[in-house]
Amino acid sequence: MASSLALATAKLFVEEGAYVFITGRRQEKLDDAVKAIGRNVTGVQGDAANLADLDRLYETVKKEKGYIDVLFASAGQGGQEMLGSVTEEQFDTTFGLNVRGTLFTVQKALPLFRDGGSIVMNGSIASVKGMPGRSVYGASKAALRSFARTWLVELKDRKIRVNVMSPGPIDTQAMENAPPEMKEQFRSMIPRKELGRPEEIATAVLFLASDDSSYVNGSELSVDGGLAQI
Asked: Which of 22, 25, 155, 187 could form a disulfide with 160 if both were Cys (CB 3.0 to 4.6 A apart)?
């Protein structure tokens, strides 16, 4: 959760009075994220695709706080593999983190969840837009939409809501490293002709996590400037 989108979200949650636990595979980047958040935060190094790391994360949460009210399952990765060149390793890595990792991130959190909580999964508009080279990534994110529909029914007795937040192109470090022509192509497709900002993702996640969205359940919120709608 030390990426720019998740970091902006964690910062906003802390500003709103929450205590957050964040994870990341690289200790140095995780330490930087903890420092940037500044207070009310614990960083736990780990890989969301590694079940032992998830166990260690939730052991830390249980020891320090004892419960969870909100879970933002944000870990994920993509790729640019055209049909015909997708490898077994690429498929397994993408589905291993985006689908398997998300499932067990949520499942292993449930014993600590208080009734009435909120689960938000980080999807992508690639799940509904036909983007060349994004078939594996898009399919992995479409699975999260299916998870939300099923899990809300399974968790209804505990009044735990499950929603998906699907961002469009966001001005992150990864986008900064992308080829200029790719960034310009995305800008041209967005009605306002500007990339999204991490802070705009954070406010959307906060909405889905809070009681302001108490009647929103099993939904997908596209935060994309309208790109997936046209």
From this structure: 155
- Paired residues of 131 in beta bridges: none
Rounded CA separation 52/169 (Å): 32
Residues near 94 by Cβ (< 8 Å), separated by ≥ 6?
A: 77, 78, 79, 136, 137, 140
Q: Which of 135, 137, 127 is nearest to 165 (CA)?
A: 127
CATH number, residue 27: 3.40.50.720
Q: How far apart are CA 38 and CA 182, in angstroms?
A: 34
Q: How far apart are CA 229 and CA 152, in angstroms?
A: 25
- For residue 137, indicate whether it is catalytic: yes
Coil, helix or strand at residue 2: coil
- Cα(60)–Cα(43) distance, rounded to whole angstroms? 10
Give the pLDDT confidence of 187-211 residue by residue, as tens digits.
Answer: 988 999 999 999 999 999 999 999 9
Give me the phi and psi of 149, to 5 degrees please: -65, -40
Number of structural domains (the chain) is 1
Q: Which of 19, 58, 67, 137 is catalytic?
A: 137
Rg over alpha carbons for the chain, rounded to the nearest Å, is 17
Phi then psi dihedrals of residue 159, to 5 deg: 55, 35
Q: What are the backbone dihedrals phi and psi of residue 195, each rounded to the nearest 5 degrees, phi first?
A: -70, 155
Structural domain that includes position 40: 4-229
